[in-house]
């Protein structure tokens, strides 16, 4: 891929390659990071992180979040169905919605229903801002830890 990109930079010029490949690539990586972050942060209730003897595959999977990304769910293979993806990663993307619906009654209170989205998921901006304002670090001690807020950020 590097050889192809170097070759294309000679053929079309580095600025054109940056516009056609570099900027969309950075945008995609930022989107992917945002989606991943929101599947693990930003819920109204503080979600635990488990370590050592307290961690299990099930506990880890249940501390993720489903999100509703509006019409983006459809073009990203139902990316909002994150809990079922963690619990049963072998389920193909085209069965994630029905699998999520089937497992909700079994999970009961352990399933956190996502906020419903408009066609574009602008509601997630508030979740992101809230999480970035309060979820700064976890303690180095303990097997069940929660994100804490740094009282003096940037020091």
From TrEMBL:
Signal sequence segment: none
Statement: the UniProt record of this protein carries the keyword Membrane: no
Matches recorded under InterPro entries: FA_desaturase_dom (IPR005804), Fatty_acid_desaturase (IPR012171)
Domain of life of the organism encoding this protein: Eukaryota
Alphabetical keyword list: Lipid metabolism, Oxidoreductase
Keyword Lipid metabolism carried by entry: yes
Domain Fatty acid desaturase span(s) in chain numbering: 6-112
Compartments (UniProt record): Membrane
PANTHER family cross-referenced by the UniProt entry: OMEGA-6 FATTY ACID DESATURASE, CHLOROPLASTIC
Membership in a protein family: Belongs to the fatty acid desaturase type 1 family.
Name of the protein this chain belongs to: Fatty acid desaturase domain-containing protein
């Amino acid at each position: 891929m590097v050889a192809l990109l170097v070759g294309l930079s000679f053929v079309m010029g580095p600025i054109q390659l940056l516009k056609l490949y570099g900027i969309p690539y950075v945008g995609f990586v930022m989107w992917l990071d945002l989606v991943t972050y929101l599947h693990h942060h930003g819920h109204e209730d503080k979600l635990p992180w488990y370590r050592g003897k307290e961690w299990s595959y099930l506990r880890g999977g249940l501390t993720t979040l489903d999100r509703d990304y509006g019409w983006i769910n459809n073009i990203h293979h139902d990316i909002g169905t994150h809990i079922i993806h963690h619990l049963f990663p072998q389920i193909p993307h085209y069965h994630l919605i029905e699998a999520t619906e089937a497992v909700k009654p079994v999970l009961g209170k352990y399933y956190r229903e996502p906020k419903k989205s408009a066609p574009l998921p602008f509601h997630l901006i508030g979740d992101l801002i809230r999480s970035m304002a309060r979820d700064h670090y976890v303690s180095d001690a303990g097997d069940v830890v929660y994100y804490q807020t740094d009282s003096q950020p940037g020091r």
